[in-house]
Amino acid sequence: MQMKRWIAGLMLAAALGLGMPTVMARAVAVPETVYQWVQSSPRMNYYFNKQQICFAVDAAGFIDLNTLIVPTVRTYDDIKIQDVLDKRRWRMESTDGFDDLAGEADYLQFNLALQTVDVTQVDFLDSGLATLASSSPEQVIQVAKLPPKSLDSVFYHAVLDYAKQHQDEIIAHTKGQLKAADQQRLVAEKKAAEKAARDQAKNDKTHHQ
Prior knowledge:
Radius of gyration: 20 Å
Mean pLDDT: 87
Number of domains: 2
Largest sheet: 8 strands, antiparallel
Distance between the termini: 40 Å
Number of strands: 8
Oligomer: single chain
Helix content: 25-40%
Order of helices and strands: HEEEEHEEEEHHH
Structural class: alpha+beta
Number of helices: 5
CATH topology of the largest domain: Lipocalin
CATH architecture of the largest domain: Beta Barrel
Shape: elongated
CATH class of the largest domain: Mainly Beta
């Protein structure tokens, strides 16, 4: 599995013109059963938590299918670690524990209708994925306005594609209840998709006869 992921990183890096993925400076244990690897850049590896990805729940306990909540992790290389340390020292911020800095956790909230991402919290992590320091940037990003080949664009679209393909699974581990109208809509959409697949299969069969 590790070799497959490394090879996939090489292929993606080549496609994006990033060069070879770097070896991380810290031995970070990122469990593959919990985190989905997406890409590697010269400075970071990008993951999202596929067990905790969920939809938001409103005050009445109903699932909001328009709001996707996604915890993510990015692991750093030596240069990125030094850059973070230098910036914290320049800002006179604490570096206690940062001798074991290994990456960051970003907590994302997607508005699926508007195609925006709100970065609600950023935690710096040590090699055991424990939090060293937190901030709340409240940064809202327009996904459509990002350069298509940018690292953030590739990462966000990978998360959105995963959510689309695993919608039922994400709903199942969201601690809320579907509204009746949403349930009916999802059933109708699933039937329409199945019919479209059957029709496409028939067309393909006819075309090849």
